[in-house]
Design goal:
The protein contains four helices and no strands. By secondary structure, the protein is mostly helical. The chain has one domain (11-75). The chain is flat and about 60 Å long.
Amino acid sequence: MKVNVEIDCSPEEARRFLGLPDVSKANDVYVDALAKAMKGVGNVDQLQELAKQIAPMGQMGLKMFQQFMEGGAAMTSSPKKKDDI
């Protein structure tokens, strides 16, 4: 037996339903700080220095995040069977 359930809700409603915290204020502060920092960037070297300050692990951290996301995607998507088509 196969059951499909569709829920039509906004991201805010889904966040509340799942009990996730509201991080919009923290996000606003982060975006404002990043925007202020970007205003002072005049060339590529300054941009690279800013990126190093924001992400201390640099390229290694980016690769770890990418592997994490790819691993999560692999867990949630499974190959379709002939019966599913």
